[in-house]
Structures are given as C-alpha cells and as structure tokens.
Amino acid sequence: xxxxxxxxxxxxxxxxxxxxxxxxxxxxxxxxxxxxxxxxxxxxxxxxxxxxxxxxxxxxxxxxxxxxxxxxxxxx
Length: 76
Hints:
The protein is an alpha/beta fold. It contains 3 helices and 3 strands. Strand 2, helix 3 (47-65) and strand 3 (73-74) form a beta-alpha-beta unit.
C-alpha cells in the first residue's frame, strides 16, 4: 500500500513496530513505534507522559514527510 501511494507522488511515513518488515515491504520513510500491542502509546505511563510520547512519534513522522530522501530511511 505504501509503495502504491508513493507511486502517485504522495509521500508516506510508515510508523511501525518491526522495522525490518517495513524495509522488506518497501516503505521509504520509516518511524519506529513503541511496541506491537501499543504502537503509539504505553498504557503504563501517566496520561501526560503518554501524550508526550505520542506527540514525539507524530512530530517525527511529520518531519519524515517533509524530508527529501533517496533511499529507505529510518527516522530514529
């Protein structure tokens, strides 16, 4: 799906929990997530801490969207 969307000229960021799989399927902009059961959060954190965590991940994804790349890139 990611490759199909990017083929139309729309950049895509793949937020994932297992980076090697994202690389294998051909995602170009990859942002690692937290964990498989909770990719964009951590229920053990306080509400405020989880908000900060989610915000960091989304900000990283937005930065990845606006970054010119020439090969698969993982945004740590």
